[in-house]
């Protein structure tokens, strides 16, 4: 068998395993062996996806869920060969390639992204540095934890489950999802102003907290004195939760 012939055989097998209902089966391979390969591929991929997206999985019938996974297998070309990155590939499929079906909830991509964020933080290799105590938080240089993500969704994804499935988007939902020092993944619900404060902390490279609060006050069109204490209290809570870290030089 030449290299070209071998490659063609591999492509035919891959095409069949992706979509066995529509793609022709490879010749000279008995059905018993084909079934082993079909089940192995689908069950492995489905297991990773259902394990990574348990809430999303719970919203579908068995048949509709299988159709969603089959669509991913057939319609998406993964950029990574690693099984641990299947969840991220599934997100890309839902956001960019999946054609919505009548059984798909309108929030399918957002809910999947939220569940993926929890999983990604759970397995992230970063470790938090030792906690730094500071007297005057306003003069300290603050940083967003590498294990904290500020997220915004059109749907309240943190509340969705079999008993609550909104049919239309309402007010945007702002969340910070983070991993604590005890390696527990948690979330805090935010309002738009607090979410923006965390974004400013995340993007800040050299200004003390008081300057960041001043920038937020300017964006909101509020007098600084009306915002300062509230913002400092919020930042103190985030420091206590390890959502925000104090730079080591600001002891």
From TrEMBL:
Putative DNA-binding domain mapped to chain residues: 9-94
UniProt superkingdom: Bacteria
Residue ranges of every copy of the NGO1945-like C-terminal domain listed in the record: 145-238
Protein name in the entry: DUF2063 domain-containing protein
Species, as recorded: Halioglobus maricola
Source lineage: Bacteria, Pseudomonadati, Pseudomonadota, Gammaproteobacteria, Cellvibrionales
């Amino acid at each position: 068998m030449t290299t070209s012939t071998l490659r063609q055989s591999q492509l035919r097998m891959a095409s069949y395993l992706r979509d066995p209902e529509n793609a022709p089966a490879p010749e000279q391979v008995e059905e018993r062996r084909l079934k082993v390969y079909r089940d192995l591929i689908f069950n492995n991929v489905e297991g990773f996806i259902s394990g990574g997206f348990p809430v999303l999985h719970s919203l579908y019938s068995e048949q509709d869920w299988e159709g969603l996974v089959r669509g991913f297998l057939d319609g998406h070309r993964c950029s990574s060969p690693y099984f641990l990155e299947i969840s991220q590939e599934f997100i890309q499929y839902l956001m960019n390639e999946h054609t919505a079906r009548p059984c798909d909830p309108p929030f399918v991509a957002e809910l999947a992204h939220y569940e993926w964020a929890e999983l990604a933080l759970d397995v992230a290799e970063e470790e938090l540095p030792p906690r730094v105590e500071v007297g005057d938080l306003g003069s300290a240089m603050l940083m967003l934890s590498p294990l904290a993500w500020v997220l915004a969704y059109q749907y309240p994804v943190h509340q969705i489950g079999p008993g609550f499935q909104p049919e239309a988007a309402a007010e945007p939902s702002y969340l910070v999802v983070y991993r604590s020092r005890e390696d527990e993944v948690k979330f805090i619900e935010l309002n738009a102003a607090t979410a923006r404060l965390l974004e400013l902390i995340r993007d800040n490279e050299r200004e003390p907290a008081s300057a960041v609060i001043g920038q937020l006050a300017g964006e909101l069109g509020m007098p600084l004195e009306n915002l300062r204490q509230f913002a400092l209290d919020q930042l103190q809570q985030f420091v206590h939760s390890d959502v925000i870290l104090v730079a080591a030089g600001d002891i």
